[in-house]
DNA sequence: TAGGCCATCTGGTCCT
DNA sequence: AGGACCAGATGGCCTA
């Protein structure tokens, strides 16, 4: 909470800090003018910064008391011995003023670097929002976000090349290639949730869902995982293991819910959180740990402006967050705000149309 | 406590 | 000359 607040406020703070640095610099300039010293950085300052930063650092510690009279003093002491004189520009001692300027440069550079990293992170956040699984509370790590994004691109490219939709399992496998087990479980869990949501919606509500944007094909047979069909299968305990081809629950061979796709062609689309499917509800780990019969997950589904609640929705996935990891970590986030994006894949028809244009 | 992830600082390099 | 970019170091936080 604090960190989020901090991150939101930080840019402003940084701007303020930047102003502060600027102000300090100008104040410093005033001080230097008072001392008859030019406030602009001199060549030797740059030299100090570029060739002797470490030296500056070391001298920063102790030379602060040095007065400016010594500034023009050459470093003759180090050459006073038998050692041959060093070539190159003569190094000047770090005066207090130069140390201050060096500090200021460093502060400004730090602020720039922070801003740069924040920009990078916000771009990464935008990327998180457009890859198939998105959660505000359980963010994918940076590296996993990049891997998933790469897989997503490759999967979509594969769809384009083959001209046909992959089945869900294949799609999940493509997406999860190279991902860590927790992330694999998270993504697969998201996809399966999506699938199951659709089932529930359709069966209990008769809701009319279209899946124009789903890249999935109907699986020729209801997929049953080995674990599910195994007598040893314990509901709720099954970790998805896509790499081992052990899936904890059935991909029922249906389309996941499609949704009103955002206008990706819109220039102002910047990876807004996907509106189509939003899972809310008590899916936190602690709740799920309560009991087997308590695994009646309530969630609401936002779909084209429609919000419904569905009780008694059983999940074969265990609880835990993206960071929980572990052999049985199903890495299912609390689902307070999980957004599923795979339905954002371009409609097959659209892809074809695009292909033939 | 170890390991993963992250933010930040820092110095070096390259570019304009 | 200054900024962007990069990579290493460091310390904090969180979870198993």
UniProtKB/TrEMBL annotation:
Pfam families recorded: HLH, Neuro_bHLH
Q: Where is the composition biased (Acidic residues)?
A: 60-79
Q: What ranges does the record give for the region Disordered, renumbered to this chain?
A: 11-103, 253-330
Domain BHLH per the UniProt entry, residue ranges: 104-156
Biological process according to GO: axon development; positive regulation of transcription by RNA polymerase II; sensory organ development
SUPFAM superfamilies in UniProt: HLH, helix-loop-helix DNA-binding domain (SSF47459)
Q: Which Gene3D superfamilies match?
A: Helix-loop-helix DNA-binding domain
Compartmental location: Nucleus
Transmembrane ranges? none
Q: Which key words tag this protein in UniProt?
A: Activator, Developmental protein, Differentiation, DNA-binding, Neurogenesis, Nucleus, Transcription, Transcription regulation
What broad class describes the main subcellular location of this protein?
nucleus
Gene Ontology molecular-function annotations: DNA-binding transcription factor activity, RNA polymerase II-specific; E-box binding; protein dimerization activity
Keyword S-adenosyl-L-methionine attributed:
no
Assembly mode: Efficient DNA binding requires dimerization with another bHLH protein.
What is this protein called in UniProt? Neurogenic differentiation factor
Per the UniProt record, the source organism is Parambassis ranga
């Amino acid at each position: 909470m604090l960190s989020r607040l901090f991150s939101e406020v930080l840019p402003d703070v940084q701007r303020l800090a930047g102003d502060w640095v600027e102000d300090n610099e100008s104040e410093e300039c005033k001080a230097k003018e008072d001392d008859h010293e030019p406030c602009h950085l001199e060549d030797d300052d740059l030299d100090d910064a570029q060739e002797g930063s470490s030296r500056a650092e070391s001298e920063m510690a102790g030379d602060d008391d040095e007065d400016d009279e010594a500034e023009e003093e050459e470093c003759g002491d180090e050459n006073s011995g038998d050692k041959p004189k060093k070539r190159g520009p003569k190094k000047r001692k770090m005066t207090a003023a130069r140390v201050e300027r060096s500090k200021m440069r460093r502060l400004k550079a730090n602020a720039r670097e922070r801003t740069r990293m924040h920009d990078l992170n916000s771009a990464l956040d935008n990327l998180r929002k457009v890859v198939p699984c998105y959660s505000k509370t359980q963010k994918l790590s940076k590296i996993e976000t990049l891997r998933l994004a790469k897989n997503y691109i490759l999967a979509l490219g594969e769809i384009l090349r083959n001209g046909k939709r992959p089945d869900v399992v294949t799609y999940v496998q493509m997406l999860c290639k190279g991902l860590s087990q927790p992330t694999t479980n998270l993504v697969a869990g998201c996809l399966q949730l999506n699938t199951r949501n659709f089932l529930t919606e359709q069966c209990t509500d008769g809701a009319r869902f279209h899946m124009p944007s789903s890249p999935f094909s109907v699986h020729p047979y209801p997929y049953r995982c080995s674990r599910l069909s195994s007598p040893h299968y314990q509901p709720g305990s099954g970790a998805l293991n896509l790499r081992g081809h052990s899936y904890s629950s059935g991909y029922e061979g249906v389309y996941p819910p499609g949704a009103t796709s955002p206008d990706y062609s819109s220039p102002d689309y910047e990876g807004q959180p996907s509106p189509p499917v939003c899972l809310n509800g008590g899916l936190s780990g602690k709740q799920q740990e309560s009991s087997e019969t308590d695994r009646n997950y309530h969630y609401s589904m936002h779909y084209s402006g429609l919000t419904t609640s569905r009780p008694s929705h059983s999940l074969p996935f265990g609880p835990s967050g993206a960071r929980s990891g572990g052999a049985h970590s199903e890495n299912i986030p609390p689902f307070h705000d999980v957004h599923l994006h795979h339905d954002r894949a371009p409609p097959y028809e659209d892809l074809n149309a695009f292909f033939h244009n």
